[in-house]
Amino acid sequence: MGEVMTMDEQRRLESLNRPIEHDTTQYIVTQLGEEQYGIDIKYISNIVRMQKITRVPKVVKYIKGVINLRGEVIPILSLRLKMGLEEDVITKKTRIIILKMDQHESIGVLVDEVKEVVTLDDEHIEKVTYDKDDKAKFLCGVGKYDEKLISLLDIDAVLAENEG
Amino acid sequence: MDTSQYLEIFLDETKEHLQNLNTQIMDLEQNPDNMDTINEIFRAAHSLKGMAGTMGYKRMQTLTHDMENVFSEVRNGTIKVQPEMIDVLFKCLDALEEYLDNIQQTTDEGTNDNEDLIKILNTILNNEKGEPAQKEEKPEAATAQAAGGAPDEREKWRAIKPNDTEKMLIEKANKEGLKVYGITVYIEEACVLKAARAFLVFKALEKLGEIIISQPTAQDIEDEKFENNFSLLFISGNKQEEVVAAIKSVSEIEEALCSEYVETQQASEEPEKVEEPPKEETTATPAKPAATPAPAASKPDAKKTPAKPVVNRTVRVDIEKLDNLMNLVSELIIAKNSLVSATGAQTNGDNGNFNEQIEYLESVTTNLHESVMKVRMVPIESVVAKFPRMIRDLSKKLGKKMELYMTGEDTELDRTVVDEIGDPLMHMLRNSADHGLEPNDVRVANGKPEVGSIFLDAYQDGNNVVIEVRDDGGGINIEAVKNKAIERGTITPEHAENMTEKEVIDLLFLPSFSTAKKVSDVSGRGVGLDVVKSKIESLSGEVEVKNKFGEGSSWIIRLPLTLAIIQALMVTIGNEKYAISLGSISNIEDISPSDVKLVQNKEVIHIRGTVIPIIRLNQLLDVESEPKDPDANMTVIIVKKGDKQAGLVVDELIGQQEIVIKSMGKFIKVPKIISGATILGNGEVALILDANTLI
Question: What is the CATH number of the domain that holds B36?
Fold first, then answer.
């Protein structure tokens, strides 16, 4: 269950490479199927490798179960199932991104792969304007980076629906 | 003096004293002549006054001072206890509680002088005693002095009787032109190291002259066997002011009373003593001039024994520190479990010694856990002690006669639970008082004693603590509840026909449900029982109602002893592991599939004369497991809740284990059957099944 790199380390590396610009946000880019999704770094407390997930019966489908992260029991959410994609296929690249919300509650999000950390200028982020379909309702914008398009996840929206 | 560091202690102790006063005054109302109660009240009021004074809460001090005056007169027998007086005293306690609340919230006592109360207190004093002028003066004088009564009373050195040798010393000193002073030193009530302060006073004085008598004896003072004052006879060539200055140079000295010791006083002493109120009597009467040390020692003892033990063997600890300790113990148990499972994995047989050590570790961690749990346990007394007063007030307010009987106040519960349990219990008692008990005339008409009884019983039952609130009132009127529910549209009339009594009672726990015809100040706002239920459930407890229409109802709260660590049976279902609390398991049976019968399309088994429904956990929990040999025996865990039972079918038993309950977070809505999760020795997470929800 080794961690890839703590966020502090990543942030430090990042700041060495780039001059600090104004109005920029850092995103962790993850792969889900064919598409790339960005998660605002401020929510992320940790990224861990895939480990045994204990299934919890009778819960919504996109909750895969719970894991033990250093003595804490943390629920795991499948981003794929949540966004209406097909079931996760666990590979060596599968990662669990641990998000820490304001109320000090943690939740893990299952992604196919963690790619890189990017810093996006506000001007490179386009707000989603078209009618939000199933997938788009979890997005807060689209970022352009190196000719690629990264869908930026609205974490609050992703997690909010659990409560319903 | 900076008193902020004592604020916590002040709050705690004041609460205790107030509670004590509440209880004692209740007592006084019943037995107005009980001298012990009166003394106890006097002492508590006196301590309160002293503490308030030390902390600089003048208003609080003034009020307690006047209360103390009243008690003092009651003690002297000049005032008789009257019902109106009790009411006034309770009002005073409420006012004091208000001060305390203010202090707790803002560290300031607020600006309410409670002049009306003080006036009433003084009226009581004046009317009954007929010495208005003197009494009027008293509060101010005493406020200035910060504690104690009239100056004469405070100069305790006057009670010292020198023996012959000492008399000689005094005479000799007088001849030599030295002065003999009588000194009484008061140390601040909040002072922690009284003996050390006293020692410093002795040191300071010895530089100026010679101490000939001290009362209590120097030895007792050194052992801290004295209250907050001690008295000395002291020979010195220095002036009085210099002596006082020397004493006051020691910190935490509240007051040093010093005046010249005059020989003639001795002659007048004997008759003077007799006139004085009982305060000094204890020492003065048995004292003989020849035996100074005896009264010296007996005085603090006599005063103290009933108050509190000299050696206080308790420590106040912040609950947060205990939580921290508890968490560490939990971690330790998880680590121990992983060690156990690591040794289990190594099958080579030559680690006998290692196993022994592991077992030793296991017993140590178990004991450690128990000890920490015990440290966190407090008697529920701290919560229930306020109820008799509440019932008394309710009785007056509702115009019903009622009596509260409590047992098991010493039953202990986890501190966090005790803190939370007060409100639900209060709700239930109010319910019993308001809805449960019939009006007195109805009771008499129904052939019951006029005075209604409410019982609060607490006791330990296995791993649970049970608190029962019972009344001998009318019980729950099932039909009235049904009608109300139909009226509110909660249920349909057809539905109501088929409801069992229990289902109807459950309606009471729904939010905003109240059968009281009119909303009263006491209960009936419909915010009661659903709050009670959710509170109890948040503490992992449950509420059960037993009802006998016409004879009363009892509300039974069942709470787990511990919240964090439990003994559990680990089982496998398919390839998943689950934990079931050992507390709910009654036994385990090996059942042949042919013994399973169908009753009303539900599977049951028949064991030793009882029919027990069985639940196949693999189906209930949607566990995927390969079909097994249909003829193979099944392992059935029989769980019980109250007198009901159910059999849970599992695949395999792993064994008993101590598990640490972990919360699963707010993000997932787990079904009720899962009460939490735990971390196994190998780092895996296993879910904990709450068998109670299955019955």
Answer: 1.20.120.160
Q: Is A158 on the interface with B (CB under 8 A)?
A: no
What is the CATH classification number for the domain harbouring B187? Answer: 3.30.70.1110
CA distance A18 to chain B (A): 36
Could you give the maximum distance between any two Cα atoms of chain A, in Å? 49
Q: CA-to-CA distance for A151 and B211, rounded, in angstroms?
A: 89
Q: Give CA separation, A139 vs A106, A107, A158, B393, B522, in Å.
A: 21, 19, 9, 60, 52
Q: Please enumerate residues of B whose Cβ is less than 8 A from a Cβ of A.
A: 331, 334, 576, 620-623, 662-671, 673-674, 677, 679, 683-687
Q: How much is the mean pLDDT over chain A?
A: 82
Residues B152 and B171: their CA atoms lie apart, in Å, by 25
pLDDT of B610-630, one tens digit each? Answer: 899 999 999 899 888 777 777
pLDDT band at B135 (very low <50, low <70, confident <90, very high): very low
In what helix (H) or strand (E) does residue A27 lie, and over which residues does it extend?
A: strand A24-32
pTM for this predicted structure: 0.49
Calculate the dihedral angle through the C-alpha atoms of B55, B56, B62, B63, rounding to the nearest 10 degrees. -50
* Whether B465 contacts B559, CB under 8 Å: yes
Q: Are B209 and B125 within one domain? A: no
Task: Say if A93 falls within a structural domain.
Answer: yes
Which residue in B20, B22, B65, B68 is the catalytic one?
Answer: B68
Query: Which residue from A minimizes the CA distance to B660?
Result: A71
B65 catalytic? Reply is no
Residue B284 lies in a domain: yes
B665/A106 touch (CB, cutoff 8 Å), yes or no: yes
Is A66 within 8 Å of chain B by CB?
A: yes
**pLDDT tens-digit readout, B151-186:** 566 777 777 777 777 777 777 777 777 888 888 888
Shortest Cα distance, chain B CAs vs residue A88, angstroms: 19
Looking at the structure, do residues B556 and B411 belong to the same domain, yes or no? yes
Give the number of domains in chain A: 1
Collapsing DSSP to helix, strand or coil, A20 comes out as coil
pLDDT computed for residue A38 by the predictor: 93
Among B17, B46, B427, B435, which one carries the catalytic annotation? B46
Claim to verify: residue B572 and residue B661 sit in the same structural domain:
yes
Give chain A positions within 8 Å (CB) of B329.
Answer: none
Residue B39 known to be catalytic: no
Asked if the Cβ–Cβ distance from B666 to A159 is below 8 Å, we say no
Q: What is the pLDDT of residues B287-341, one digit of tens each?
A: 444 444 444 444 444 333 344 444 556 777 787 888 888 888 888 888 888 887 7
Same domain, B411 and B440: yes
Q: At B481, list the tokens.
A: 């509840």
HSE of A143, CA atoms in CB hemisphere, 13 A: 26
In terms of domains, do B193 and B221 share one? yes
Pick from A86-90, B217-221, B408-412: least confident: B217-221
Interface of A with B in 45-64 (CB under 8 A): 52, 54-60, 63
- Three-state DSSP class for residue B549: coil
Final residue of a structural domain among B511, B528, B560: B560
Higher pLDDT: B150 or B137? It is B150
Distance from C-alpha of A149 to C-alpha of A151, rounded to nearest angstrom? 7
B46 is catalytic: yes
CA dihedral B481, B483, B486, B492 (to 10 degrees): 100
B293 and B327 together in one domain = no
Range of the domain at A41: 7-163
State how many domains chain B has: 5
A contacts of B663 (beta carbons < 8 Å): 73
Mean pLDDT of chain B: 77
* Model pLDDT for residues B58-115, shown as the tens digit of each residue: 888 888 888 888 887 887 777 777 788 888 888 888 888 888 888 888 777 777 777 7
pLDDT average, residue stretch B223-233 = 78
CATH number, position A54: 2.40.50.180
Residue A135 falls inside a structural domain? yes
Task: Report chain B residues whose CB lies below 8 A from the CB of A52.
Answer: 684
Backbone dihedral angles phi then psi of residue A131, each to the nearest 5 degrees: -55, 130
Residue B387 lies in a domain: yes
Contacts of A57 in chain B (CB under 8 A): 620-623, 671, 673-674, 687
Which residue out of B431, B435, B468, B542 is catalytically annotated?
B431
Q: Does A70 touch chain B (CB under 8 A)?
A: no
| pLDDT above 80: residue A21 | no
**B141/B223 same-domain check:** no
